[in-house]
């Protein structure tokens, strides 16, 4: 089965692009940060420098692995689902489920290996740049030399490979279950997890108020609170979407003509599936907006108190921004990937719509309305989560209102989320519209 | 906007005596179209000329690859012929953009497909009124219910397609095709996925649309039983017209079809003489068929 996996990757490399990107990003981030371990282990590194480097390297370790895992799993799930026909064909020609599993895992390993190899170069540059920032801020001694060695390489390879294999197992299990006709489990655990995330998030945000304004870890509680709230909203996103649709569906459909009418009905029926798009969007907005604005508030507070930034503060800022950047990049990748998959999956539906008398423009209007509504829903709940953390932090840290830059930052984050959502769904739809309607309807889907 | 709407409404009532007219319609598929030395193209339609009067029910039959689906798609504006003229209700279908063709079809043409092509997220009533909504026309609830009652689905307005049987879905598709009061309804293998009883109901509904409501129906089928419901059958072989039958019986259609199949398999590229002045057996002169009226 491995030779089949190799052939299938070689014949159609394009469809593995998303998985490759996820692996590349994952391996790159892991190796970049772990090269700090290599550097710290070098000969003649003083204790403070070594400690700073080790702490920074460990920050990304835990959840970085999780992110890589989820990103690869998300792209592979889409990949396997789109090849339902091919997999059904393999089954009917006598492939056992175990053989299909081996094929998908084999493909995943091939693609992940390619991603890791490609990531080595950028990771060396990225690691050097990160190291440079620490050296410039004075946290690391000038006589320390950057090293990119066995720890970076082995951890990058191990984490990415592990994530790729695990994600492939997860994806193929989901797909074969769907093929066997079984419904996805209702997910009581999921509801419990979502509720727990909301409660813990609210608690974490509330805990901010019991802390001292000058405490160095003050930002941690509201930041984690915001992330947890965003996760909770993401879990309940189908229900939230239905709720908003209940309020706004009628006026929207009246306002937007046939396109909006179809969009409203499509979203009502597909609220559960749209969670795959809303989840990364809520996370992206919540995490990015909360961290960026809290950092702005912190900078302002420091400037107002007349203190210059200490090395620790600078370090914290660097790490904050790096972490947000990584989470945002992964969330964006997952958003674009799942949205692309969900839209290209609808070729047949768009064909039917055109045969019923819809012009290509009306199909685009339908998809555009759906994208707009999803963007508004996702960014609204992301903003809610982010705002909870930011307001709590601001009220404890300073007595002033939110600084003006926060609004600009927020708009920027919303714009990125909206652009990713709308460009992906409209661009994908445009591509499917090139197929004549009669042929689009005939496509198995 | 209003002008267009009015014109659409008029087209639904008054009408040209000739519902559909094809003049020398040709269509080739594949690379090298144009007749060069490396011509790999396949002629799907070869100068087909056809005229169907308003209020007729015509079946188009032929062996696989005879071009019957291409004929239907070219006539219905779903595909663009390489050359030739298509006129629906006396108006020429000009090969503009997809949007222009769609707007042309909206008021003149209705479709029924083998795979129903209903939208899964809409209810029966919403699917039926969708063409009106897309065209920006007023939706008359009573009229919708009346049309759905005619096809026997008056009690299924709120159901979704996945809650219906194949026969019921096809009846929704027929209601959707009729609700815009089109000049011509094109049906592409409408009974291809149905059991015999549902097929009979669907064919009776199409027949009723012609006899009672004066619509024009053009149906592509490979089933002689389905074809026997039509007023006349037009046969196609190798992209050319190959005869017709008036008031067809199942046996007569089957026999003619078997004969066509033999000829097509016999290796002859064109079973009927191409030279003008030599009408093929059963074919009106110069591949032109004019039916009754």
UniProtKB/TrEMBL annotation, chain A:
<feature type="transmembrane region" description="Helical">
    <location>
        <begin position="274"/>
        <end position="292"/>
    </location>
</feature>
<feature type="transmembrane region" description="Helical">
    <location>
        <begin position="191"/>
        <end position="211"/>
    </location>
</feature>
<keyword id="KW-1003">Cell membrane</keyword>
<feature type="domain" description="ABC3 transporter permease C-terminal">
    <location>
        <begin position="323"/>
        <end position="436"/>
    </location>
</feature>
<protein>
    <submittedName>
        <fullName>ABC transporter permease</fullName>
    </submittedName>
</protein>
<feature type="transmembrane region" description="Helical">
    <location>
        <begin position="151"/>
        <end position="171"/>
    </location>
</feature>
<keyword id="KW-1133">Transmembrane helix</keyword>
<feature type="transmembrane region" description="Helical">
    <location>
        <begin position="407"/>
        <end position="426"/>
    </location>
</feature>
<dbReference type="InterPro" id="IPR050250">
    <property type="entry name" value="Macrolide_Exporter_MacB"/>
</dbReference>
<keyword id="KW-0472">Membrane</keyword>
<keyword id="KW-0812">Transmembrane</keyword>
<feature type="transmembrane region" description="Helical">
    <location>
        <begin position="109"/>
        <end position="131"/>
    </location>
</feature>
<feature type="domain" description="ABC3 transporter permease C-terminal">
    <location>
        <begin position="64"/>
        <end position="177"/>
    </location>
</feature>
<feature type="transmembrane region" description="Helical">
    <location>
        <begin position="53"/>
        <end position="73"/>
    </location>
</feature>
<feature type="transmembrane region" description="Helical">
    <location>
        <begin position="363"/>
        <end position="387"/>
    </location>
</feature>
<feature type="transmembrane region" description="Helical">
    <location>
        <begin position="223"/>
        <end position="245"/>
    </location>
</feature>
<dbReference type="Pfam" id="PF02687">
    <property type="entry name" value="FtsX"/>
</dbReference>
<feature type="transmembrane region" description="Helical">
    <location>
        <begin position="319"/>
        <end position="342"/>
    </location>
</feature>
<dbReference type="InterPro" id="IPR003838">
    <property type="entry name" value="ABC3_permease_C"/>
</dbReference>
<comment type="similarity">
    <text>Belongs to the ABC-4 integral membrane protein family.</text>
</comment>
UniProtKB/TrEMBL annotation, chain B:
<dbReference type="GO" id="GO:0005886">
    <property type="term" value="C:plasma membrane"/>
</dbReference>
<dbReference type="InterPro" id="IPR017911">
    <property type="entry name" value="MacB-like_ATP-bd"/>
</dbReference>
<dbReference type="InterPro" id="IPR003439">
    <property type="entry name" value="ABC_transporter-like_ATP-bd"/>
</dbReference>
<protein>
    <submittedName>
        <fullName>ABC transporter ATP-binding protein</fullName>
    </submittedName>
</protein>
<dbReference type="InterPro" id="IPR027417">
    <property type="entry name" value="P-loop_NTPase"/>
</dbReference>
<keyword id="KW-0067">ATP-binding</keyword>
<dbReference type="InterPro" id="IPR017871">
    <property type="entry name" value="ABC_transporter-like_CS"/>
</dbReference>
<dbReference type="GO" id="GO:0022857">
    <property type="term" value="F:transmembrane transporter activity"/>
</dbReference>
<dbReference type="GO" id="GO:0005524">
    <property type="term" value="F:ATP binding"/>
</dbReference>
<feature type="region of interest" description="Disordered">
    <location>
        <begin position="268"/>
        <end position="293"/>
    </location>
</feature>
<dbReference type="GO" id="GO:0098796">
    <property type="term" value="C:membrane protein complex"/>
</dbReference>
<dbReference type="GO" id="GO:0016887">
    <property type="term" value="F:ATP hydrolysis activity"/>
</dbReference>
<dbReference type="InterPro" id="IPR015854">
    <property type="entry name" value="ABC_transpr_LolD-like"/>
</dbReference>
<keyword id="KW-0547">Nucleotide-binding</keyword>
<dbReference type="InterPro" id="IPR003593">
    <property type="entry name" value="AAA+_ATPase"/>
</dbReference>
<dbReference type="Pfam" id="PF00005">
    <property type="entry name" value="ABC_tran"/>
</dbReference>
<keyword id="KW-0813">Transport</keyword>
<feature type="domain" description="ABC transporter">
    <location>
        <begin position="20"/>
        <end position="263"/>
    </location>
</feature>
């Amino acid at each position: 089965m491995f030779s089949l996996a190799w052939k299938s990757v070689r014949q159609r490399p394009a469809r593995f692009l998303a998985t490759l990107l996820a692996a590349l990003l994952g391996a790159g981030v892991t190796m970049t940060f772990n090269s700090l371990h290599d550097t710290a282990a070098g000969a003649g590194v003083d204790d403070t420098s070594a400690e700073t480097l080790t702490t920074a390297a460990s920050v990304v370790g835990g959840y970085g692995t999780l992110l890589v895992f989820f990103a690869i799993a998300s792209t592979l799930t889409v990949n396997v689902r789109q090849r339902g026909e091919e997999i059904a064909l393999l089954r009917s020609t006598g492939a056992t489920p175990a053989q299909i599993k081996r094929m998908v895992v084999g493909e995943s390993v091939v693609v992940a290996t390619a991603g890791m190899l490609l990531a080595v170069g950028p990771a060396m540059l990225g690691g050097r740049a990160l190291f440079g920032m620490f050296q410039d801020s004075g946290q690391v001694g000038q006589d320390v030399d950057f090293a990119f060695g066995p720890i970076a390489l082995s951890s990058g390879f191990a984490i990415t490979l592990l994530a790729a294999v695990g994600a492939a197992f997860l994806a193929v299990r989901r797909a074969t279950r769907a093929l066997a006709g079984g419904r996805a489990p209702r997910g009581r655990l999921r509801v419990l997890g979502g509720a727990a995330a909301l409660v813990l998030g609210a608690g974490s945000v509330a805990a901010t108020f019991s802390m001292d304004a000058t405490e160095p870890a003050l930002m941690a509680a509201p930041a984690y609170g915001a992330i947890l709230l965003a996760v909770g909203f993401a879990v309940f996103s189908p229900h939230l979407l239905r709720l908003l649709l209940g309020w706004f569906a009628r006026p929207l459909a009246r306002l937007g003509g046939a396109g909006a009418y179809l969009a409203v009905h499509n979203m009502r029926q597909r609220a559960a599936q749209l969670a795959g798009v809303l989840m990364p969007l809520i996370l992206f907005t919540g995490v990015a907006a909360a961290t960026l604005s809290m950092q702005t508030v912190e900078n302002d507070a420091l400037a107002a108190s007349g203190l210059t930034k200490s090395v620790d503060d600078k370090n914290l800022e660097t790490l904050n921004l790096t972490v947000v950047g990584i989470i945002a990049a992964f969330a964006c990748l997952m958003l674009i990937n799942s949205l692309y998959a969900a839209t290209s999956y609808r070729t047949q539906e768009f064909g039917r719509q055109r045969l019923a008398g819809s012009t290509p423009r009306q199909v685009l209007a339908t998809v555009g309305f759906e994208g707009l509504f999803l963007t508004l829903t996702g960014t609204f709940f992301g903003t809610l989560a982010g705002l909870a953390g930011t307001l709590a932090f601001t009220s404890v840290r300073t007595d002033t209102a939110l600084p003006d830059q926060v609004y600009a930052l927020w708009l920027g984050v919303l714009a990125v989320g909206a652009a990713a959502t709308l460009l992906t769904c409209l661009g994908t739809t445009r591509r499917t519209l090139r197929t004549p309607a009669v042929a689009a309807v005939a496509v198995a889907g | 906007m209003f002008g267009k709407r009015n014109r659409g409404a008029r087209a639904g009532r008054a009408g040209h005596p000739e519902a559909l007219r094809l003049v020398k319609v040709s269509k080739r598929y594949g690379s090298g179209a144009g007749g060069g030395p490396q011509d790999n193209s396949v002629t799907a339609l070869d100068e087909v000329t056809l005229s169907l009067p308003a209020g007729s029910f015509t079946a188009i039959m032929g062996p696989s690859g005879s071009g019957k689906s291409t004929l239907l798609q070219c006539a219905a504006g779903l595909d663009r012929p390489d050359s030739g003229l298509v006129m629906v209700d006396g108006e020429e279908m000009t090969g503009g953009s997809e949007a222009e063709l769609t707007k042309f079809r909206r008021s003149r043409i209705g479709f029924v497909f083998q795979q129903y092509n209903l939208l899964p997220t809409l209810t029966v009533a919403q699917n039926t009124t969708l063409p009106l909504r897309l065209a920006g026309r007023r939706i008359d609830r009573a009229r919708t219910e009346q049309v759905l009652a005619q096809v026997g689905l008056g009690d299924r307005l709120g159901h979704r397609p996945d809650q219906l049987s194949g026969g019921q879905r096809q009846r929704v598709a027929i209601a959707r095709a009729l609700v815009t009061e089109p000049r011509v309804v094109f049906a592409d293998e409408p009974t291809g996925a149905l059991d015999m009883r549902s097929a009979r109901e669907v064919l009776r509904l199409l027949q009723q649309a012609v006899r009672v409501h004066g619509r024009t129906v053009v149906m592509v089928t490979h089933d002689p039983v389905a074809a026997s419901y039509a007023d006349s059958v037009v046969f196609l072989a190798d992209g050319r017209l190959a005869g017709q039958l008036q008031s067809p019986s199942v046996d007569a259609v089957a026999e003619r079809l078997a004969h066509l199949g033999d000829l097509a398999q016999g290796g002859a590229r064109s079973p009927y003489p191409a030279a003008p002045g030599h009408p093929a057996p059963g074919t009106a002169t110069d591949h032109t068929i004019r039916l009754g009226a």
